[in-house]
Design brief:
Helix content is 36%, strand content 27%. It is an alpha+beta fold. It folds into 2 domains: 3-47 and 206-211, no CATH class; 56-178, Gcn5-related N-acetyltransferase (GNAT) (Aminopeptidase), CATH 3.40.630.30. It has an 8-stranded mixed β-sheet, with helices on both faces. The chain is globular, with a radius of gyration of 20 Å. It comes from Streptomyces graminearus.
């Protein structure tokens, strides 16, 4: 598609969205390149970042892991077994922290609905007595494996989060046409550092924010 046509298409879709909803907050794909069209439609754009790991058929992604990550994976693997679990077995109440039950239920419905349309994976790490010590929920979409949700039990052995992410990356690398593992990013410095341990690089993306206003005047549809 020519850049002129792409810009017009994104502008038209954004305006159609604004005609149909009262508010919107949408994180865009890091590969999305028409931020100007969103701003032209009257949306506020926030700059966010995620962490992405490029997957190559001829290269083991583990070669980019730091020593600490590799040690954590080995330690957790001695005490835990990672298996695939049904999507509806993912414990959203453990992953969505600090939110009321209604919000957790909504996140669960959304995750399972998307997981019913696109390929998705739930992995669970269990200890020798069968207790689940952590899970990840990964979605495949347009050539990217996205780490949508995760949680772990601090009572488990050291390294459970690293073990689960490592298994998810290995699974993503086996999926035809998947060339990126997207960690979804985090505003928490400790979590961001955890992601860098797998060799994931920072990647900026725009986030659209907009709400309808009853006040007249230019720009009334924007936040702020």
């Amino acid at each position: 598609m020519h850049p002129v046509d792409r810009h017009r298409a994104v502008l038209s879709m954004t305006q159609a969205l604004m005609d149909r909803v009262e508010s919107a907050e949408i994180p865009m794909d890091p590969r999305f390149g028409e931020a100007a069209a969103l701003a032209e439609a009257g949306a506020e754009l926030l700059c966010r970042h995620t962490r992405v790991l490029e997957l190559h058929a001829d290269r083991d992604p583990r070669t980019g892991y730091v020593a600490t990550a590799r040690n954590h994976i080995r330690a957790a693997a001695r005490e835990h077994t990672v298996r695939t679990a049904p999507l509806d077995a993912f414990d959203f109440s453990r992953a969505v922290v600090g939110q009321p039950p209604d919000a957790v239920a909504a996140r669960r419905r959304s995750g399972l609905r998307v997981g019913g349309v696109e390929p998705a994976l739930c992995l669970a790490a269990t200890d020798p007595d069968g207790t689940c010590r952590g899970q990840v929920f990964v979605l495949l979409c347009d050539g990217a494996a996205v780490l949508m949700h995760s949680w772990f039990d601090r009572a488990g052995a050291r390294g459970v989060p690293s073990l689960l992410v490592d298994e998810a990356i290995a699974w993503a690398g086996r999926q035809p046409g998947t060339d990126v593992f997207d960690f979804e990013g985090s505003v928490l410095p400790g979590v961001d550092r955890f992601m860098t341990g797998f060799g994931a690089r920072a990647c900026a993306y725009p986030q659209l924010r907009w709400r309808r206003s009853t006040e007249p005047g230019a720009g009334a549809g924007e936040f702020g």
